[in-house]
Amino acid sequence: MSNVIAARQEESDLFQPVKLGSCVLSNRIVMAPLTRSRAAPDGIPRPLTVEYYEQRSSAGLIIAEGTNISSQGRGYAFTPGIYSEPQVEAWRNITGAVHRRGGHIFVQLWHVGRVSHPSLQPGGALPVAPSAIRPQGTTAYTEAGFQPCVTPRALETGEIPGIIEDYCRAAKHALAAGFDGVEIHAANGYLIEQFLRDSTNKRNDAYGGSRENRARFLLEVTEAVARVCGAGRVGVRLSPVSPANDIGPDSDPEATYSYVVARLNHFGLAYIHVIEGATQGPREVPNGFDLQVLRRAFKGLYIGNNGYDLTLALHARQRNLADLIAFGRFYIANPDLVERLRIGARLNVPDRATFFGGGTQGYTDYPFLTAEERSAA
Prior knowledge:
single chain, 14 strands, alpha/beta, TIM Barrel, 16% strand
């Protein structure tokens, strides 16, 4: 580790406690939600997942992987749910393990919308979306492997309150499972973002047209979930410019997402979690849209995400560009990531072949630092 980085670590509060809603986190490092497709076919997390999250409980905050709010919300095989009592019971074992290690854990509430496949839907039905627009070049991970997404069915206006109720039920289940809070997934081209962007929302009812109407679904979901959990236990994930899942750019992303953040302020949420640039891609933001506009406008904490390493994280805290820093793929291979970053130790390299599905390999078998490695760092 260079003397310059070591000095910046000493001066930084990245490894110091911070208050997030009703939680006091041990540091400002967040484990981002990571789909690993290790659940049972019925969406019940397996016992192995207890060990996976317990290993990573030194993160200031764990945001558990995208978790289906209903059987309709599923877009990938072997992903967990939180809509049945057996699922809740399995999650209770996971949150208990994290808490016993002194960690905090939120769950990400997920409805994929059109990013699905009939084989993943109840009765082989079509996936749903705000409008019947097929995501081009996008696949769903099914039990038979990756398959192209199909043209979804546009939701009827009268169906939307039922989906909002699914979010509420999932939030109630999250509290019953022992989660410290929930994150509403409104990013990466999934259902809520499909409503937000005018590239995928061509509706002519109260949920389409103007940005106020397009934001209505997110705001109604957020209001309902905050009523269940308390606003200080709720965060929202946004990806203002990411092209993930063929979402297509909004015609005026700065205006759309500035409006969204201004309205989210009314609820007193714990945080917004922002993908800075393209999900798992470049951090550059096109057309002069400075995402710090959102950071400055939001009254809660701001979690920055996308391509962070130690140097970039220290820089972000030094210049107060984010309150907390989320790490994704680094957490796959480094269960003790906080310690490795704190002392500047070498990081394990993740094996992409084991990202989705399987058992212990590439999931719970990545090594922790040895005493010799700690001494050498």
